[in-house]
Each structure stands twice: as structure tokens, then as C-alpha cells.
Amino acid sequence: MRYESVVDAIGHTPLVRLALDPAAPVEVYGKLELQNLYGMKDRVARQAVLEARRTGALAEGAPIIESSSGTMALGLALVGAHLGHPVHIVTDPRIDPITLAKLRGLGCRVHVVEAMSGAGWQSARLERLAELIHDLPGAFWPRQYSNPDNPAAYRALADELLADLGHIDVLVAAVGSGGSLSGTARMLRRALPDLRVVGVDCVGSVLFDQPDRPTRLQGGLGNSLVPANLDRTLIDEVHWLNDREAFQSTRELALEQGLFAGNTAGSVYRVLKDVARRAAPGARIVGIFPDRGDRYADNVYDDGYWERHALGAMPAADTPAEVAAGAEVATWSYAAQHGAVRPPRRLLFVEANTSGTGVLALDLTRRLGLEPVLLTDTPERYAGAEESGCEIVVCDTSTERALREVIGERFARQELAGITTTSDFYVPVVARLADWLGLPGNPVQAMADTRNKARVRELLDAAGVDQPRFAAVRTVAQADAAVERVGLPCVVKPADDSGSNDVLLCHTREQVLAHVEHVLSVELNVRGLPTARTALLEEFVEGPEYSVEMFGEGGRQVCVGITAKTVSDGPYFVERRHLFPAPLADADAAALRGTVGTALTALGVELGATHTEVRLSARGPLIVEVNARLAGGMIPELIRLATGVDLLEQQLRAACGRPVELAGEREGFAGIRFLAADREGVLTGIGGVAEGERVPGVRRIVLTAAPGRAVRPPRNAYDRLGYVIAEGATPEAVVKSLDEAERALTVELGPA
Prior knowledge:
Elements: E1 15-17, E2 27-32, H1 42-55, E3 64-67, H2 71-83, E4 87-91, H3 97-105, E5 109-112, H4 121-135, H5 149-152, H6 155-165, E6 170-174, H7 179-191, E7 196-202, E8 237-241, H8 243-257, H9 263-278, E9 284-289, H10 303-308, E10 321-322, E11 333-336, E12 346-350, H11 357-367, E13 371-376, E14 391-394, H12 400-410, E15 416-420, H13 427-437, H14 444-451, H15 453-462, E16 470-473, H16 479-486, E17 490-494, E18 504-506, H17 509-521, E19 535-539, E20 545-553, E21 556-567, E22 575-580, H18 586-603, E23 608-617, E24 620-627, H19 635-643, H20 647-655, E25 669-675, E26 681-687, H21 689-693, E27 698-703, E28 710-711, E29 722-728, H22 731-744, E30 746-750
Helix pairs in contact: 1-2, 6-7, 8-9, 13-14
């Protein structure tokens, strides 16, 4: 196979069927990661460095530093040198001379610590690394123990196994940084939910509740610290081997299979044979063999080394003893891991919307038995968030790089149940973060596409989905030709804003040019994020507006219901009332569902709630907007009142990979009426709330604007002052309740 560079040659390793007992009714394979240029962690080095360059964490030519005594160091040396980065490796005296020679040959600066600190060699190396960070401004530390790019690097390995074998029953892999086992198992389980995962550790490692023994001789597995990347919830069974057992089985791997490998592969080999012995007939078992044996020539394969360390006198077991989780072991033992660690508890929110469902989601998370964590740069934006009891992390949420840093530093991977948002603006970055962490989420490209309305138009056009005529412009000079294509009147709006902000109906060419110029001049949106600097011109379509609430699960899209929307007539389009479910003829409802289903397929949206706005025109349903997130405007609350389906809860469950329930338990109707000023002024109060709440059918009245705020007739959703929610047995009853409540309310204004 031909590659453009040595970095491209990483991966694509052989899978070999092992020659075990020919009478055994099982298949056992070894994935030869030792056939990478330097070892398995070449994958991690490539992933971490390329992602750091993409996000800006690693500048062109900046140094790379890491603590490693083996293949991670070699992988970074390989990738760093190829991409023009000086590489500094911190290690300890246990580093073998072959690895040291390779690192120096590749141009690395190697820093060898002289003595252990309180927590062993690992902590001594980290102390020296901290000094280097201070001395080398701009240096990038891959943090192999806590950087989710470590497990993410093994998605390709999982894909290779699936391509070669299709079905796998058991995966056996060693545990050191936690990346290879966690990353491979997590991705395989998406395709193979019944996969059994067996971890291999060493006696004297703390990874699975054993006491630390820094004098252990094995390299490449085990640890004196528990890495954040280790996800023990993925592991069904763990084995421990002492130094003699590991070294002996490494020699057996060479003799019996012709594979001259390191002690990590040898340990996996011993456990593979035991798993095969206990497996059901027909089982297909795969073990990952991480590294070659050349760096172990002076210890594992050296009789003199065995004599000097009295390895022959160390007790050894021919078969493993089953022990309880947490029991201290000295020879080969194994323990089931079910119940050994609590399941993931934290659900991360990257910002939220401010229309009500954002804070409701935080409250609901606790009712699901999870701990909500809100990542936000402006906590005061969310009234009631602090009272919800959620953990609030104040941080920069404006870039993927900043969010990666705070998540990697604060949370161990096995703590995280999911990551989500209820705000339009953060849907793409949440998709990227979910992908990075291996959490449930939508395809990254699909979320980037749906966030840009111009891109949505292009994709729907290519798929033949019915929609208004449109044109995207990125300069004012393009506007004339766009008007010719779309016609007048037309709607001009930003390609990536929210809440009907800057959406304007234009009747003349001059209005179009002026508003295009305005839209293109806006560099930051209401959240301070960069805009697409793109204006979208769309044909103005007459006809009632609806939103179709769909939910993706298990490769299918389910229609939860259709909302009837009352929108202001223009020139601004602000939602004034919602009614759910919409009173529609069966044929019209089917047409709306079909059009939206085709649109979501064309866009590649797969998981969770979507909110698609549609005009039912004379020529049929035309897509207005596709939003790859839960509906705002309290529509989820209307769905809950009308059907009993808590769509917000289902969205949170989907974000955590839990099963969802979309079947309604009742049939009713619910609606919302938004309160607004009819002229400009300063809000002094809203009267009649108590009277409005006494109207039959009214569930609640919520005021979102405080006295003293400057107000105006709505130009976008942010201009609304509050809302009334009502329910009833018929659409007419709901509308009557909303109308009576609105008449009882008075918006009191002072001079502008």
C-alpha cells in the first residue's frame, strides 16, 4: 500500500489468527499493533498532534512535550519531526537503551528524572514536565493520560477490526493510559452492544483498586496514577499478572506464535488463552498486541536479568484465581467489574437557550438521576440556573479549543454520561465535543451544515426537497443578481442567527441592498460568536406556518407532532402563538411529515429532536428552516401537556445513550401566547397576572422582562416580554383561554 508520508502509514496493522489448540471451537486473533512504525501509540501521537494543530492549541513550529518511557514518546518523535515541531520527552531511568537511542536519533530532547517522588516515577516525571511548560512558552502537552484524543485515536483500530471480522465476541487489551482499551471498546460497542471486554493489568498497579508497587518491572501497562481516560464502566473483567507471569508469557508468545513482542503483548496473550478456554463454542476473540520486543531484549528475553531480579523464584499461577473486585492479589487473578464503579453521572451542557427550556433541562437532569453541569461564560444569563442546584463552570465557551481544555482538565471520561445544549449557537461545537469524547451525538458535518441556513438550502436543493427560491450572498455586490433570481418581495436574513433576529421582509431592491449590507456588517452574534457573514435571500411564501417536531433514534425519524404557528405579518417575523397539535387534515399532515423526513435524511441528521419550520403553500409544503435541536418557544412543554411525552426528557436521555419513549399517553391540546409591547417605551410593569391565571385552562403566566427595560414592538424573539400557557380538550378551548388571559393582562409603559 502506498502512502504520501510516514504519518499516513500509521495504522492499517495486520490481524492474525493465532495457532492455539486446533480442537478448540473458538477463533482467536491478534491485532498486531506492534507493526506500526514504532508501536500502537503512533496512533495517539498522530491524533493528538493533528487535532491540536486544527484547534490552534499547537502553533506552527511550536514545541511538543510529554512524559513517556515508551511508544508514546516514539510516536510523538515521529509525528512531531515530520510536521516540524521540536519534541521534548520526560522519562525516568527505567527507559530502555533502544528507545533512548531511537528518540535521540529522531532528534528528540530527552529529559531523564533522577529519582522518584512521593507517588513514584510517574509523579517525578510530571514535576519535571511542569518545569518545561514554564520554560517553553507555547509548548503543547498532549496529556496522554487525560486527553480524549488518546481514546479517540483508536476509532480507526475499531473500524479495522470490524472491516476484517465483522463480528467479535470478546476484546482483550492491556491498560496503561486507558486509551487503547477504552477507545477501541467504546467504538466497537456502538456496532456490537453485546461485546465482552477484558482488561489486562499488572500486580502493583493502582488502576483497578490495587496497592501501588513502584518497583514492578513491567512496562507499557499498569500505572501509579489513575488516568482520566480510563473508562472502567466499559470493562467486564480485569486480569492481573505479576512480573514473572507477564515475562514468561511474553517468551511463550515468541515461541508459540513467532511474535517477538513486549511484555504488554505477552500479558494479553496469556489472558487470551484463558478467555478462549472459558469461551462458548464459536466465539470470536481478539487481543491487541501493542509493541515489539526489541526494547525488551535486555530484560524480558535476558536470562541474566531474570537471575538478577530473582524472577524465577517469584510465585506464578498456571490458571487465574477469581477474586472479588478490590481484593489484593500477588499472582495471576481476575475479577468481574460489574458494580465495581458507579455509572457515569454528569451531563454537560454547553450554554443553553434563554426561552425557558434551558433551565428546565437542568432541573430535569437531576430527576433522571444525573448531575447537570453548565459550562457558560455568562451565568447570570440564566435566571434560575443557580437555584437548580447544578454545577456551574464559568469558562470560555467561544471556541472548541477552550471547551476541550476545561473538559479535559476537570472531568474524568468515565464520569461523563453525555454532552448537549439547548441553544442553536452551540449545536456544532457540541457535536464535535461529543465525537471527541465518544459520547452519543449527531454527525459533526451534519450539525455544521444545519447551523448554516445557506448550506441547508444548497443541500436540500441538491436532494430535490421543496423549498422557496433562494440565493446566498457574501458581498453587497452580489445582491442585485440575487434579487433577480429570487424576486420581490423577498425575505433577507442572516445565514446563522437565531430567534428571528434580523429577519426582514423587503419589498424594494433598495431595502434588500440596505439590509444585506447590515447583515454582512455583523461580525459577532448575541453570544459573542463569529457570524458566517452571509445573507440569505428567500422567496416570500404565502400560507400558514407549521413546525414539525421529529425525533431521531435507532436510524429512524419519528414524528412527535406538528405545531401550528402564528407569526407576525412582517416586515419582521416573530412567533406570537403556538398551538399543539395543529388541527390539520390528514393529507396535509402526511405531506408535512414526508417533506421534513426527506429533508432530515438529506442533511444527515440522526439523533434526537429536530424542529423544522414549514409553510403550507399553494404548491405544497416548503421548508423554511431546519433546526437540529429541540424546539424553543416552550413547544416541548406544550407537547408534554397535550400528550404526556416529555420531549425535553427524551432529548436528555438520547444525549446519554439511554432508550427513549415517544408514545403519548393522552390526547389533548395546549398553546402558548407571547406577550409583547405595542409601542416603544420603558416597561413599568405588567398588570392583571392574577386575573389572567384564574382564566379556566390557563396553566401559568411567566414574565421574562423586568420593569425598567426598554421595549418595542417585537422585531425578534428577544423582544417578547413573557408568555401564557393554556391547555384544553379542543383547539378552540385553548385559543379561547389564551385570548381571555391576554385581555386580562396590561403591558404598562413609560416614555421611551
